[in-house]
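Handout for the seminar on molecular recognition.
Each group receives one record of this type.
Step one: identify the two inputs.
Step two: read the structure output and locate the region that could contact magnesium ion.
Step three: write two sentences on what you found, then compare them with the reference statements printed after the record.
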Amino acid sequence: DDGDGSGGDSGEGLVVGFAQVGAESAWRTANSDSVQAAAEADDRIDELKFVDAQQEQEKQIEAIRNFITQQVDVIVLAPVVETGWTDVLGEAETAGIPVVLADRGIEAADEDLYVTRLGSDFVEEGRKAGSWTVETFGGGETTRILELEGTVGSAPANDRKTGFYEVLDGEGLDYELVDSQSGDFTAEGGKSVMETFISTHGLEEVDLLYAHNDEMGLGAIQAIEEAGFEPGTDVQIIIVDGSKAGFEAGVDGKVNYIVECNPVFGDQLMDVVVQVEAGEELEKFTPVEEGVFGPDDFEDELPNRQF
Amino acid sequence: MSTTTLTERSDRSTLFDGLGRYIPIAATIGLLIAMYAGGLANYSNFDNPQLIADLFIGNAALLIIAVGMTFVILSGGIDLSVGSMMAFSTMALAWMTVELGLPAEIAVPVVLVFGTGSGMFTGAVIHYFKVQPFIATLAGLFLYRGLTLQISDRDVSIREIEFFSWGMDRVEFGNVREGGFSLPHISFIAFAVVIIAFIVLHYTRFGRSVYAVGGSEQSALLMGLPTARTKVGVYAVSGFCAALGGVVAAYATRSANPLAGVGLELDAIAAVVIGGTLLTGGSGFVLGTVAGVMVMGMISTIIAFQGNLNSWWARIAVGVLLLAFILLQRFLGRSGEKRKT
Amino acid sequence: MSDEPIVQMAGITKDFTGVRALESVDFTLRPGEIHAIMGENGAGKSTLIKVLTGVHAPDAGRILLDGEPVRFHSPGQAQAAGISTVYQEVNLTDNLSVAENLFAGREPRLGPFINFRAMRRKASALLDQIGIDLNVAAPLSSYSIAMQQLVAIARAVDFEAKVLILDEPTSSLDRDEVEVLMRVMRKLAGDGVAMVFISHFLDQVYEVCDRMTVLRNGKLVGDWDTDALPENELIGHMLGREVETLEAIEHRPDRWPPGDAAPLVSAEGLGRRGSIAPFDLDVREGEVVGLAGLLGSGRTETARLIAGADRHDSGSLSLDGSKLRGHNPRTAAARGIGFCPENRKTEGLVPDLSVAENIVLAMQAARGWARTIPPARRDKLVAEFIAKLDIRPADPHLPVKNLSGGNQQKVLLARWMLLQPRLLILDEPTRGIDVGAKADIQRLVNELSDDGMAVMFISAELDEVTRLSDRIAVLRDREMIDILGAESEMTTERIVDTIVAKGGEQ
Amino acid sequence: MNSYLKRLFWPLAVLVALLIVNIAVTGFDFIVPSVHDGRLGGAFVNILRGAVPLLLISLGMTIVIATKGIDLSVGAVYAIGAAIACQWILDRDQSALDTVFTAVVLALVVAAVIGAWNGTMVAYFGVQPIVATLILMIAGRGIAQLITGGQIPSVSDDTPFVELGRGAIATVPVPIVIGLVVFFGLVLLTRTTALGMLLESVGGNPEASRLAGIRSKGITILAYLICGACAGLAGIIGSANLGSADANNGGLWIELDAILAVVIGGTALLGGRFFLLGTAIGVAIIGTLEDTIINVGLSSQWQFTAKAIVVFIVAILQSPEFRAWLLKPFRSGSAAEPTAPEPKPEEKAVAK
Ligand SMILES: Nc1ncnc2c1ncn2[C@@H]1O[C@H](COP(=O)(O)OP(=O)(O)OP(=O)(O)O)[C@@H](O)[C@H]1O
Ligand SMILES: Nc1ncnc2c1ncn2[C@@H]1O[C@H](COP(=O)(O)OP(=O)(O)OP(=O)(O)O)[C@@H](O)[C@H]1O
Ligand SMILES: [Mg+2]
Ligand SMILES: [Mg+2]
């Protein structure tokens, strides 16, 4: 079971199948670009088969089956959801094709169906945001928080929420969640939900806005400005992702804290893919390097931003 | 009395009138074959028989739902709630078996009965209160999605439930490695649904009333056909199929995803229409729907084999393929049709 | 004939929004009798039938069937209770085959499954009985309205019902078919079936009916034995006034010296494959050209080619001697050719639009969307034509779908008369129109042609064609076989002879 | 006219009910506009402002639906309009007025051309409207992403372009002004000319319209063209409001909301009569509903359910059959019908 099969393609490099979630955000397209560019540049990789599943698990499963039929060497999967992969990954295993997870993870019970996962830890991102909140507001009076959630039901939304409150509750911060609504991870959603927040609750009493991603945060900042408040001052703002636009807002003093979620891990992924194909032993989880940035770091970090 | 034949009758057209309605589906199948041949010529491993089998694995739920949709569209209606209903059914199954600890043997019938019942309710609202189908079922689209999210806003695993492991057990046709193929049980569920639907539509009174109502509801009523029963019936069938699609989805992934099947109703409608069924009702075939689903699957297979399209080129490619398909179908259909206006 | 009534309707009242269609109407039907319901367009005949058979619920009144009070909630229930009906507009589903239409809802079955073979066999046998020969497996849509009407009748007759209702079954039928239908009706009456017959053809009514109930403006005028009510009295009851009978409109001999003027429109070798063989035909200003032929002989096709509704694939058409290019309904209208199609429901009216909008539609189309007809002028024109054609109710804002069949036909006529075309093509304009209105329309055709308008007139009633036409083109088998012009030739007998003779030649 | 007002009654009633709920929860501030930076604000004004893109699309959709069509591609055209405008400005002198002008015109023209293409597919190729527009619904977002290269182009806050979304004319927010202009423009276009009647005629009976000499193909194309242009304009306003264009999520599923608004407003999907004012009310209902959910304090999970319930209520209230059914017990209770002798016959009819 060496996977060389009738690999089909003439070259000796690897054929990799990549089942991407979709193109739902700038983060995601930056991620796709990074992986595609890395594969292109890498001599060890002969071809990258890229499929965009438009956020549907059914389409991803279909894509994996097609990869199996094509007898690719390695399958990279960025799962839309955590559960439901048992059968199709089992099929890949039977066909002798190793699977690498990129970005999101899958349920623990299926751990032996993939070799390793390379990606971010959304719960950890939530925790990072939580820690800064505790640090910044701890000890004072009740911290009043507004939250802009991601798409209802999506893993990053759920995990970033979980990690955040885990720390807040764990550290015993005295806080009140004024309101929490989904802004669908979009600027449009962030802005309109924020407008409603402002007209319903006002901003005078609110201390912190926690936005699950950049775009919603940026949308909300506009709403805050249009209502005559100063984002970053009248209300402190945490955003997750760390796109260029997010950092620019940070430089302008409109954002107070950025938790990075790094999409640019194409090169790292190619290394992992090659290792996996060679049968090397790997840790189950290979974290992507990700930082956190406060007001002092924004200026310096901005030039390094790739998306 | 047959001595006088009162009307003049030319012998022309009798043959054609019989065959004319098969043209769209013939065109669909022809184009499907052409697409397959194109794939064969361009991609290695495209000749693997499993590739065709896979069309019926990944699209088993879609096929079932599209069959239900065929009933509704043939009757001149439309059902937008099927995607949400499917997600809701899967989620409800997960909730009943995992949270409530009900045996799956009970949960599955409950879900199917609920799907059928809510379809009947929708149908009754449409028929008796004359609410437009598009709107009544759009309310369903929102409602079932909302209920699904209220059960759980994250995916739920049901792998521990023994019952759901049956669905993906495979039946092998020849050795897969030596050019055979295998199909899981869920594909057979889908085939069974297609066959039953075919028989019901073509060989039962209910099926023929569906066509009659789709042709002209007013006339069907005046002919004394049970239009109320028919209209309520088609939505019940569609609700049942959507719920069954949910059960199949539960089998296929052994998990429930609250955002599953978003936009699935449009895929189903597209499959039905590509299969030659007219949205105005009264004309079409359930076997055309099978071809339609295969076309949708074949398009994504080709894109996966092509493999070098980024997200946007992939979308554009799907659009262009659909366009080519529909225009060719129109063109072939027309040149053959040449019927009286 | 037993005297115990099988159907009794008493005090039936039915309101539609804004219109009182029936007001306290009584109606009695006895077994074995053929009972005519007479009245003008919009008198409420069809509504009475629909109330009886469960299409509409009455607002007041009671219905007894066999002495038992009944209230049907759908035509299906009425059918199940032994009342079989052919409604006015052909109500079959034309996407299904002829056989399926004949047996819809009562298909022969094997177990739960329909036995198509048996169904087709029975269908052929049934059609054979009333003397028509169709491909029962072909979709109904491939046959003309007249054929569809026959199929609808066959379906209703086959129910072996206690009560058979025929609402204008003969409106598009030829004499021979009507003959057969009447034979069937008499036979059924002999078997004790009670029948309701609605028709605007008085001769037919007098030929088969035993009794008549007359309605006027939704109210009962009375009922009479046919023998006791002479035709002019009947008309008086229907219209509520005395009118000159139709016979007053005589054929005007040699009004138009043939071959005198230059042709206005002339077709040379005009034809379309599969629809009508190439033909030559001239129409001169002020001339009425009739088209005669049996069902499916190609009259409609001839008209459609000249009107530009279908594209011709051979020959040419010229207007005032110059060849027409790009002939379609729009350019035809612009060039002064108006076309009233035979199927007003599918080809004529826009059901949701108001009477006024339907009337001005063609005129507006000719002006383009940007140039509206000034409202004042429009209202005046509409009012004028509503009065001229006596469209009832005379409310221009009513959706046209709420009008009775005959009044809808008048709306369609008004649409084209408004345009004052040079050639007006009327395909079955008098179908389903009451005696009074029919006389009006015939008089109108005469008037128009006197004013110099050319008219092409198609009707299933040969009398009508001969009476109005200056020349008659006779069709058979989708071919124009002769054009009769001399005064001596303008008789029904001559037309029939022509058709038969040419048939024999082949 | 009377029946026209009757049609609007139930949608208006639902709208008023929603407003009352909001006022009850958040006080009169909800409805009373306030002024910020020389621009009207306040909850309700914000709702209206935010609903303008939906309004524009729904108006265009109304016209397409009048021809018995439907346009699923409006969401994608919205994204394309937004993408073209933002990308064009981004690559040029952002503060120049003529850049902005060109960007807007370009986006509108492309959107109109896409609409015309849809119309051509329907009118000339005889493709069913749902299918014809489904193609662009899928491919259109790809085209929008192609334009933006998968990024989310953000224009600077200084460009006059953003005034289209955020500015004010005499304190009235620009989007509301645009919405009103388009609304009255379309009303005038369809009701003072014969266009409205011809659209209804083509939608009500295409064959009869053709035989009456109407250029039904041209009219159909025009309807889709207007709809496309409206969707493009909606995209421009939406992206101007945000200062960025999200090709993937901009206007996502807005077609469903638009169709909903049209139908709530009393226009039937079967073509024929259309009601632009009704559509506007439908849009106001949908816009207010989303805020109501937040104001009442329901979580995001409730969004769909609440929407379903309101849609259901509006739809069913509009049904005369339903109202008759509701009133039935009261009527027969108060006075016995003259046609009372009933119980037996039903059994009889069914028994046979
Ligand atoms: N569905 C309806 N809605 C509103 N008004 C209607 C409806 N059906 C019929 N009417 C009105 O009721 C009256 C009676 O119509 P009906 O069809 O019974 O006339 P009719 O006697 O059959 O005439 P015709 O000889 O033209 O068929 C007419 O004024 C007509 O406009
Ligand atoms: N006996 C028949 N057998 C087969 N097709 C028929 C028959 N009679 C009519 N048709 C079809 O019906 C259609 C209509 O016929 P057409 O309109 O030419 O008849 P017509 O002479 O205008 O008669 P009328 O106007 O009285 O119906 C034709 O396309 C023809 O195919
Ligand atoms: Mg009538
Ligand atoms: Mg004819």
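Reference statements: Residues 97-123 of chain D form the longest helix (27 residues). The interface with chain A takes residues 26, 29-30, 36-37, 41-43, 46, 50, 145, 150-152, 154, 166, 238, 241-244, 246, 248-250, 252, 290-291, 294-295, 297, 299-301, 303 of chain D (CB under 8 Å).
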